[in-house]
Amino acid sequence: MFYHIFNLVFEGIVDMSMENKKLVEAITSMDEDFAQWYTDIVKKAELIDYSQVRGCMVIRPYGYAIWENMQKVLDGMFKETGHENVYMPMFIPESLLQKEKDHVEGFAPEVAWVTHGGSEKLAERMCVRPTSETLFCEHYSHIIQSYRDLPKLYNQWCSVVRWEKTTRPFLRTTEFLWQEGHTAHATFEEAQEETIRMLNIYARFYEEYLAIPVIKGQKTEREKFAGAQSTYTIECLMHDGKALQGATSHNFGDGFARAFNITYLDKDNQLKYVNQTSWGATTRMIGAVIMVHGDNDGLVLPPKIAPIELVIVPIAMQKEGVLDKAYELKEKLSKTFRVKLDDSDKSPGWKFSEYEMKGVPLRLEIGPKDIADNKCVLVRRDTREKVSVSLDNLQDEIAKLLDDIQKNLYNKALKLREEKTFETDNFEDFKNIIEKSPGFIKAHWCGDEKCEEKVKEETGATSRCIPFGESKRDGAKCIVCKKEAKELLYWGKAY
RNA sequence: CGGGGUGUAGCUCAGUUUGGUAGAGCGCUUGGUUCGGGACCAAGAGGCCGCAGGUUCAAGUCCUGUCACUCCGACCA
Fold this sequence. Notes:
Elements: H1 2-24, H2 34-44, E1 48-50, E2 57-59, H3 61-80, E3 84-85, E4 91-93, H4 94-97, H5 101-107, E5 112-117, E6 120-128, H6 133-143, E7 152-161, E8 175-185, H7 188-209, E9 215-218, E10 230-237, E11 243-253, H8 255-260, E12 263-265, E13 271-273, E14 275-282, H9 284-293, E15 310-314, H10 322-333, E16 339-341, H11 348-357, E17 362-366, H12 368-373, E18 375-380, E19 386-390, H13 394-419, E20 421-423, H14 427-436, E21 440-445, H15 449-459, E22 462-467, E23 487-492
The chain binds one RNA strand through helix 2, strand 11, strand 14 and helix 11.
């Protein structure tokens, strides 16, 4: 009898607590279903909406603001290193696309074709650019004549279209936003220098602004860009242990120059081919930020690229003086920080959850009690830590906290990557790791593409890069064929 | 491109088995009370049941086709 009653009561409690939990837990837990967690975040943080167009998304103001912040910083870095922005057509005539053989073969399966203008069939169909190498090359062939015209350091911000089979917001969409740098140089060495310079810029951007640690390295032959002589990459690791290519930089040598006849007359009066590079980064960076820093309460944004660094939530705002004080703080703080004051009549608790979902780094609570004490409460998104601070040195306190959050996010991400990075010489171990605790695996390789292929077939992992600054161990053997190793590689399942 | 899942109100979904008046919760609007972790009361607005055919007196429900989203693979940033 007692037991029965106890059970009923107990069940009642359990039911209630679960109901409450459901109300609060707006998104799927990342441990339960990482893919669903990701989808929940992009929608609930109001980054995107799905559109009527297959595989394409609407980037909403909050999502686009993140992109604008990324653009602003990267564009500044490009300009500092002497690059100029241009804009190329979005269409490429078929004949132009086909000039470089490897390149067209790489992209042919995923281009969209325009066949009609109005109701008239075009004499030559055009593709919607999947990337603009051919257009830049065509243009360079017109404007480069002398060694005095070099180097040409161009970049463009635009969208490109690749007809992907399956799509996911930010990670892979049919149309996506990016920047593509295209440069032309007199010598191979200069092109190589540029390739690495831009790779380093991406790495710095990831680490300093996105708070994401990266592995810099070179792609293997199998993984390199269609038409490139060598491809370099920055690789980062997501929360679920999958790798994501953060940005790439390619040295084309004179391959495209030969196909497009881009020549210049050198000092020695010899006609020579230029050497080219290209490098790009995309809205996929937003996906990286989500999957590296996000948690079960939503997005977590690094302060340096957060559209809102600080949100002010007034408490008991119908009470005399609260809103006035909140407006006053907003005005003062907006001079230094990106600030939002939420004076809507939602409850404070709702606002707390909402801005946590949106990953706003800092929350400022101001209520009657604080005002009486000349204080306010600051709450960090990353650690949930609450501090009560005097209104007198608020600016300094906020600056310090934002700086600390930025650093903490980087350190947490680095720690996560270290925990998920393994090294092995044994193929069976390799398979086990990939299956049971996915992450980066460092393993030696003989240089044969067949071994690379075998790893992919049997484990699903691909080679991510030949890392800079980490050399192979003397006498090490290939993880697959056990022959003498040529390189140490990072491997992993990738997005 | 192959395999699975899902399309009904802005969102999450019930209703489909067995055809017969279009539903719930949340959100939204208006008014009021609240406000330091997703508040409450009252009154409202809101749907061509993804789209197109077909079967039927009658289709959200049955049949055929198609489109989109999503997950898992192959391809890619």
